[in-house]
Amino acid sequence: MLSMSLKAWKRLLAPIIIVLTVGAFTAFIAAHPAALEHLKNLNPIVVIELLALYSLFMVSLVVMLEASLDLCGLKISRSENMILSSYSALINFFGPLQSGPGFRALYLKRKHDINLKSFGLASLLYYAFFAAFSALFLLSGVLGWQLIAILVILGLLVLFILLRTKNRLTSRFRSLNLSSLYKLALACLAQVFLNSLIYFIELRSVNPTIHFSQAIIYTGAANFALFVSFTPGAIGFREAFLLFSQHLHHITTNNIVSASLIDRGVYLLFLGIVFVFAISVHAKQRLQADNN
Fold first, then answer.
1. How far is CA 2 from the centre of its chain?
2. Which distant-in-sequence residues (6+ apart) come within 8 Å of 100 by Cβ?
3. pLDDT tens digit string along 120-167?
4. Spatial distance between the Cα atoms of 47 and 106, rounded to a whole number of angstroms
5. Closest residue by Cα to residue 175 from 64, 70, 63, 66
């Protein structure tokens, strides 16, 4: 009886996620109509550019998950990876406490019996890379050319630590190789860089005088908000971080608010496309974590 009830619960998981996602979309749009108003007035070319960059960002998420699973000695199909990454992106935006990673871990445990300690450590490595790259972006306006030297030093330090702790890490990971770590780091760097391009396009759409160097600093501040966010899409938290860092990127409050509204609107549109994609490839059936 227990196993049957568990199977029934698993079969209900996908439609529950679908219903909650649709409900979250509706509630978010009702609470933030200004996001859609800015989207209506936006140049269609800008919207297309942003959607293309968000699509590349999704590809980087797929590569990131692939590298993380390599470290855990697990391989899943590319299609399953894409569907899982798609649902994670949806849940990460609408769910509390950036809950996408938790959903991935739960799914992988039930479907593939992944070692949660190994996957958790791989996730921590990813967030460490993400925090390091974001910090360098944030401080680039202060450090200038010294940033290159710091990058070299950090790279050598990371390599030294890996070589010193490889035996210890091997006990946690089924497969520890530098190629997987490099793939994880590059995927993370690609995400941060793509974020900077996205923010630059959004900022330039409200103020053509903004430089890419400002967008880089802006990206670093915005990314750190994700670590402490309790709201869907880091609403409020990201804006607060951007306002606190104004002395670094020198972007006005009006520009921050306008660009943020554009970002929410376009990202909602992108998530809608992702949701349709997930449904169209029968994500419900593919994400049922049964034991058969």
1. 36
2. 88, 89, 91, 92
3. 888 888 888 898 888 888 887 777 656 655 765 676 676 666 655 555
4. 34
5. 70
